[in-house]
Amino acid sequence: MIKLFAPLISLILLVFALFPAACASSADVETNKTVWSRVELESDLDAWLDWTRSTHPAFEQSVDVDAFERQIKQVRAGLHDGMETSEAWYLFARLNPLLNDAHMGLELPAIDSDLDSWDVEIENGRAYVQLAGADEKRQEIVAVDGLSVPEMIARTLPVVRGESDALRQRILELRFRELVMLNLDGGSPLEVRIQSADGTERVVSEIKPVAAASEATPFSLSFLNSTAIMRIDTFEKDIDAEFASFVEESFARIASEKATRLVVDLRDNGGGAHEVSDRLLNYLTSERYTPISAVRARVTEANRGQIPGAEPGDVVAMPYAQWVEPESRLDHRFGGDVIILIGPATYSQAIVFSTTVQDYQIGLIAGAETVGKANQTAQVQHFDLPNTGFQVRAPLYVLTRSSGEETGTGVLPDIPISNVEDRTIAQILETVDQWAAENGQPDSALQR
Q1: Angstrom distance (rounded) from CA 141 to CA 152
Q2: Are 294 and 315 in contact (CB under 8 A)?
Q3: What sequence ranges are listed for the domain Tail specific protease (predicted)?
Q4: Does 323 have pLDDT greater than 90?
Q5: CATH for 121-214?
């Protein structure tokens, strides 16, 4: 049931974190192999589907229903007695691509919280890690307990949640140890075969990455002539204090260097919290803004008290403004041309940030269309399946960007740049300058 509420209501969203900085962890994989019957697995499948449909506020509009139902039939047909962790997970995961949203679907089973993650980079279907040691050189993880890692990646990448290969690959990089343990049916690896660039192989019992690799700063500032380039790879809430210092120091330096143009590189930014990205916007505009103009929300026991007349299960559609007032007086607020650089991997809160900049004409968007939709989902919920313990996720909210435009596309750049993810900043600036010469300078194009 969908209900329309007037915007004057005291709204629900002020009491929720619309853009969670991190996801709740999945149920731990059992250390001993677990075997399930067809009846148990079918019960879990039904529980997943029922929970998702009763949680997502616009499920039928978010997926190709016919294709999804056909895939469900194929998954059911593949269920049988005696299925173990890995086989059952890969069968269930065939539904992930049809959901087409990293905020929705089946999670990789989590590992024990006492186990360290493996910091890897995946390139061309192969996993690389920089190991701690005398040489600290990058090594390829070739196999784990005799299982080929490239085959593991090739098998898993198509069925990980997410809208694109780039996003799914990033999830695998962050959850690589979980991927390995899934393929070992929850067991810890005993032998990890690694290979150096010269082809030399050795076997280790544990991957211990260089500490600095996991602590690399996710943002940086550089200059190219009169252009300042700010690379920001995350808006995660746990780096808020560090980000606040970085932003303050960066704009002081931008002012001292007398930069006339600022490029904010969000090509690898997977999102985070709006409180963090607001720190950056504070230096780009003095005018108030709202990142969203409307919301469609599923009513739950937690929020029903703030929506008069609504019952759990209802879907509430309403105008909603989440106004942010930048500081009226701020040292070093930037007044030059602003370019926001986006690409296929730009996601979640980085998308919301980009649409806000675009809708309020704070700057120009350059790059390639995001794979994630311009109107994002939010407030991700998690649910453990009763038998396997697999964890699934779904959002409670669908947001409408501040312009009110409701399309199924990603963020469309003002300045299209092909293969933007592979281009250097110098190449990108050359394209931007070309565009400016043909269309007028960014300020005149925006008519700020």
Answers
A1: 11
A2: no
A3: 200-418
A4: yes
A5: 2.30.42
- pLDDT on residue 7: 37
CA 202 and chain centroid, separation? 35
272-282: per-residue pLDDT in tens?
999 999 999 99
Look up residue 306 and give its amino acid.
Q
Question: In this structure, which long-range contacts are made by residues 121-126, counting pairs with CB atoms below 8 Å and at least 24 apart in sequence?
Answer: 121/173, 122/153, 122/169, 122/172, 122/173, 122/176, 125/150, 125/153, 125/154, 125/157, 126/150, 126/153
DSSP string, 257-286: TT-SEEEEE-TT---B-HHHHHHHHTTT-S
Q: How confident is the model at residue 6 (pLDDT cuts 50, 70, 90)?
A: very low
Asked if 432 contacts 265 with a C-beta cutoff of 8 angstroms, the reply is no
Instruction: Give dist(CA 93, CA 283) in Å, integer.
Output: 42
C-alpha gyration radius of the chain: 23
Residues 6+ apart with CB under 8 A from 336: 259, 260, 261, 262
Domain boundaries, the chain: 1-105+216-448, 121-214
CA torsion angle 176 347 19 297 (round to 10)? -110
DSSP-derived 3-state class of residue 377: strand
To which H or E segment does residue 60 belong? Answer: helix 59-62
Phi/psi region, residue 48 (left: phi>0; alpha: psi -120 to 50; beta: rest), is: alpha
Q: Which fold has domain 1-105+216-448?
A: 2-enoyl-CoA Hydratase; Chain A, domain 1 (3.90.226)
Take residue 429 and report the two structure tokens written for it.
């600036």
> pLDDT tens digits, residue range 232-263?
999 999 999 999 999 999 999 999 999 999 99
Q: Which residues contact 280 (CB under 8 A, 6 or more apart)?
A: 232, 247, 264, 353
Mean pLDDT of 80-93: 96
Which residues are within 8 A (CB) of 68 and not within 5 positions of it... i.e. 6 or more apart? 95, 98, 99
Q: Which residues partner with 204 through β-bridges?
A: 192
Q: List, for residues 7-40, the tens digit of each pLDDT value.
A: 333 333 333 333 333 333 344 444 355 799 999 9
d(Cα 223, Cα 228) in Å, to the nearest integer? 5
DSSP state of 116: P
Q: CB count, 10 Å around CB of 388?
A: 24
Measured CA to CA, the distance from residue 60 to residue 218 in angstroms comes to 37
Residue 208 contacts residue 214 (beta carbons within 8 Å) = no
3-class SS of residue 23: coil
Confidence grade of residue 205 (pLDDT, cut at 50, 70, 90): confident
pTM of structure: 0.82
Strands (E), 156-200: 192-195
